[in-house]
Amino acid sequence: MLQATPLTDGWTLRHEGAALPATVPGCVHTDLLAAGAIPDPFLGRGETEVAWVGRRDWTYETDLAVPSRHEQTDLVFDGLDTVAEISLDGRLLGRVRNMHRSYRFDVTGMSGRLSVRFASAYAEAEAVRGRLGERPAAYAEPYQYLRKMACSFGWDWGPTLVTAGIWRPVRIEQWSTARIARVRPLVTVEEGTGRVELAVDVERTRVEAPLTVEATVGGVRARADIEGTGGVVRLSVPDVDVWWPRGYGEQPLYDIELTLLHGGDALDVWRRRVGFRSVELDRRPDAHGTGFTLVVNGERLFARGVNWIPDDVFPSRVTRERYRGRLAQAADAGVDLVRIWGGGIYESEDFYDACDELGLLVWQDFPFACAAYPEEQPLRGEVEAEARENVVRLMPHPSLVLWNGNNENLWGFRDWEWEPRLAGESWGEGYYLGVLPRVVAELDPTRPYTAGSPWSGSWDHHPNDPAHGTHHSWEVWNREDYADYRLSVPRFVAEFGWQAPPAYATLRRALPGEELAPDSPGMLHHQKADDGNGKLRRGLERHFAFPEGDFDRWHYLTQVNQARAVAAGIEHWRSHWPVCAGTVVWQLNDCWPVTSWAAIDGDGREKPLYHELRRLYADRLPTFRVREDGLELAVVNQAAQEWAGAVRLRRMSVEGVVVGEAGVAFAAGARTVARVEVPRELEPGGPKEFLVADVDGLRAVHFPAPDREVPYPRPEFDVTLAPGGVTVTARTLVRDLLLQADRLDQDAVADRGLVTLLPGEQVTIGVRHWKTPDAEAARSALYCMEPSR
Questions:
Q1: What is the pLDDT of residues 369-418, one digit of tens each?
Q2: What residues are paired with 62 via a beta bridge?
Q3: Helix (H/G/I), strand (E/B), else coil: 455
Q4: Residue 410, CB half-sphere, CA atoms under 13 Å: how many?
């Protein structure tokens, strides 16, 4: 039987002539941090103090002595970041240049000093650029010239920390006669019967040895012979339980075990979990343009999505538990789709395992983002090799439902002045419309492929045409008011978002000793977006009086504005289902402490936006829509059952007086949207009034004017301790009340975000990990709308 031995102990990292202890898997930055050789780049402006690390060559070494009775011994690296030369006892084993691939070297009978020498990613990228010529990109760093996580070189939310190292596990594998080199599983379901086809490739030391494979799944067993170096075994599993995305059903998973046999001897075993489900992408033209609707097990979905970036700029630090925790946060917020963005990585098995279990659909970008990528060697061969490996590696996961060629590159070619600058040079189109769809069609015909995001489906339409395919909505954040989200109904909104700073405790940890202000040195350093603070200010001034000189108020209002902006988009687009078939918020997570579009900040703390997503992505959502002929209430029902009843509508003054009231019946069928016309006499009569809709414990509120024009009363409320939290009782209108629990205790977590209370109403806010509960302390951490100053 094949024996695998992790090679984790005894590694050293060469640094200025000294040998530092090294952790494998890991990277140069984490080893230097552990040795105290560099400051923490996440704190203050430490990022700039460690910029030299990415410009150096680095060498990892260990002793390798592997006595074995097996016929072959292989040295296997699951991931090397990025350009490296591997040698053993002075003998060159090979050279590598792709972070997104694994590597295997024959070291049979060899021993001695194992050395992995990493060249600077900058040096390699600049050398490739020198050979192939300049290509345009959204950022000045040369990330498009090598197959490496692009955001290592910085992004508009991330630091420039160009890594190197053995970032995924390394091991010794010893085997005789033959081993399983690759298993390509095609998993489908037809009329309740699960079909599994396992295409098996083997590597041999003995060509003449007869081999068979035996597979089991769901109590079914089948065998097949291996002819030469390959074979196929097929299984049919009757009456399978179908895998569903969360909110639509359960997530049953089936264990597959495939054994390679020589006579009665087991030589190698391959094990995975699979789920039986079907997936389609409906891109048919219709009266509104060209659709983009995911269909799972025949059920058409409105995708409630978030974009995912690497959860740490040093991805080797992301553990299985951290993946599970972050993705559980997404599921708890009502998310059912996670898009793995193209400037990052193909994530580890731990990510997809968690999505399989949680029922989170995965949209997987191939790693290309915001740049023109050369198609010549040495890149072209690497692109195809990495695609082939990762398509097969990820195929077992039922959560994976879509392959996507790139992020924004087709759009960039058309709109970002790339075409004239390229003057006919290659830029990646051959990957997105040639290599990648060919690889997916050959290896994984069970899943749809789309050439990019955004992409209208062909060059017949503008790549970012909202009427065709996927759309990225960034004009709003960059130049407009978030109310402008309501001016169009894209077929599928794959990116949109609004910035806000991280939680207060996160800022205090990341900027120790700094007097916080929007434009303080540390705050500006942890704001990577072009004119990010200017956009935050302009976005606030459209709605609020800007709180000059009051950081705490600025911090609260920017977080409110982020939640309001995202709500404006999601509520509008969900109300237009099935024309719009999904929203994917930019973004779920951060990779360090930073002002960004994330709902969960770099320390894992939930912003108000996170809690707002819980409301926005719930199965049932009432939301007001402003039409030319008046107000209506859209009753969005994504549940499997009809939603029927009566809506209580109240026209109120800001002083809390009910000016008018009515009950209106509605009925929204399963997975549909019902529309309730608001009686004219209930429409608010100016900024002193607002409209409230209550139905089955859910609430929608409509204020007809920006907050700066609303004559809010001075908020009055009582605060008392409650078991596990605090209770707030309103004596006046209290709009967008927020308890910033991390101001009470850096570990404290509140169970809700923004809440609006009418006079006499109360809410109990649960607080976990609060060591010394105190009502007055809680009052000091409560924020809400106040009269304009």
A1: 999 999 999 999 999 999 999 999 999 999 999 999 999 999 999 999 99
A2: 114
A3: strand
A4: 29
Pairwise CA distance, residues 614 & 596, whole Å: 19
CA 567, 568, 573, 574 dihedral sign is positive
Please report, for the chain, how many H helices and E strands are present, in that order.
Answer: 17, 44
Cβ atoms of 786 and 714 within 8 Å: the answer is yes
Q: Half-sphere exposure (CA, 13 Å, Cβ side) for 419?
A: 6
pLDDT at 789: 63
| Assigned token pair, 178 | 């033959």
Mean pLDDT of 98-102: 98
Contact 677, 624 (CB under 8 A): no
SS3 494: strand
Based on its alpha-carbon atoms, the radius of gyration of the chain, rounded to whole angstroms, reads 28
CB atoms near residue 580 (< 10 Å): 26
Q: Which residues are catalytic?
A: 408
Quick one: tokens of 237? 């599993």
Structure tokens at 96: 């590598």
- Tally of CB atoms within 10 A around 614: 15
229: three-class secondary structure by DSSP: coil
3-state secondary structure of 391: helix
**DSSP-assigned beta bridge partners for residue 79:** none
pLDDT score for 277:
98
CB-CB contact of 122 with 54 (8 Å): yes
Mean pLDDT of the chain: 97
Cα atoms found within 13 Å of the Cα of residue 114, Cβ hemisphere only: 23
Given this model, what pLDDT does residue 690 score? 97
At 66, is the pLDDT very low, low, confident or very high (cuts 50, 70, 90)? confident
